[in-house]
Write a structure and sequence with these properties.
Blueprint (H helix, E strand, L loop, with lengths): L2 H4 L4 E4 L9 H28 L6 H30 L3 E3 H34 L4 H4 L2 H27 L8 E2 L6 H7 L5 H35 L3 H31 L5 H24 L2 H22 L11
Parallel strand pairs: 1-3
Antiparallel strand pairs: 1-2
Length: about 325
């Protein structure tokens, strides 16, 4: 199919966030700070996991991929939003919009899969501790992560290919700060029944499958703990699963907010999307840093190494000459 048969528009207009003109500078600074915190915080998590051999375990292997996915998810939407706020140039090309949509669905789906994989890892660690290293071997961990990346790619490709078959006529104004699938479907002058069917079937199946794995893992963990309840076991389970539970609650809470408010595609939908694409990726490093003793120890060790090398560079050792009589 030729491009002119797919769409009659060459670009879209992103209305962005509903911010009064006099407050654009303040919100630009706020979102820039949040984006830099997201990138630097998640990069720090990846760096610590790479440098500290004690963090070379399945849980932190999955966490490093989640941190990279969070950086990518924010980078898909936030830089364009900041550029629009600064330059007031709100247009985005047709291909740029389709590319943004593809990568947004890709990394949002990847987050979903990785959270399910991490929940299974916590289930094995608590319910089968003696067989943990046997079950969660290196090959299986690599397979789970590779499968997450591949399935997320196929999931995103399906929705993107279905979208490019639609026609977009006179109205090219997107009432959002990025190319959201729901907003684009509303602009189409073609029949979108197939797109909606795939969203509810394929998208719903993937979402509920991942959520089912997470829910089933924690139900099983709770059942095992409550068989022989003790303060020590409860503390161990909370210290092991607390960070992941917090991230899951934040992720699915904001995702539910997006889908429940997307029917109006108004300010509520935009606020929920900001929470999902900006706030959640920014908070994940803080959740894992504040609640995780291993990450804290790795951070302290990294800081001590930097101080040591800095002190060595400022005070180089003096060679002592020995005199022979």
């Amino acid at each position: 199919m030729r491009p002119e048969n797919q769409s009659s528009v060459s670009q879209f207009l992103l209305l962005g966030l509903p911010i009064p003109p006099g407050q654009q500078g303040m919100f630009f600074t706020l979102f820039l700070g949040m984006y830099l915190t997201t990138v630097l915080g998640n990069l720090l998590i990846i760096l610590l996991i790479r440098l500290d051999s004690r963090l070379h375990t399945p849980m932190y292997f999955f966490l490093s991929h989640l941190a990279f996915s969070d950086i990518s998810l924010s980078s898909v939407t936030v830089p364009k939003m900041l550029r629009n706020m600064q330059t007031q140039h709100q247009s985005i090309s047709y291909m740029g919009c389709i590319s943004q949509l593809y990568f947004f669905i890709y990394f949002a789906g990847l987050d979903n899969f990785l959270l399910a994989v991490m929940a299974y890892d916590r289930y094995v660690a608590i319910c089968h501790p003696l067989y943990y290293t046997t079950i969660m071997r290196e090959g299986l961990c690599a397979l789970l992560v590779a499968g997450s990346w591949i399935v997320a790619c196929v999931h995103s490709l399906i929705h993107t290919l279905l979208l490019v078959q639609l026609s977009f006529c006179a109205d090219n104004t997107i009432t959002h700060f990025f190319c959201d699938l729901a907003a684009l479907l509303k602009l189409s002058c073609s029949d979108i029944s197939l797109n909606e069917l795939v969203i509810f079937t394929e998208g719903g199946m993937i979402s509920f499958s991942c959520f089912g794995v997470i829910l089933g893992s924690y139900i099983r963990i709770g059942t095992i703990i409550m068989r022989v309840p003790s303060t020590k076991r409860l503390y161990k389970a909370f210290s092991t699963c607390g960070s992941h539970l917090s991230v899951v609650s934040l992720y699915y809470g904001t995702a539910v907010g997006v889908y429940f408010s997307s029917s109006s595609c108004g300010s509520k939908d935009i606020i929920a999307s900001v929470m999902y694409t900006v706030v959640t990726p920014m908070l994940n490093p803080f959740i894992y840093s504040l609640r995780n003793r291993d990450i804290k120890q790795a951070s302290e060790m990294c800081v001590n190494r930097v101080k040591f090398f800095k002190q060595q560079s400022l005070n180089p050792p003096v060679a002592v000459r020995s005199t022979v009589r």
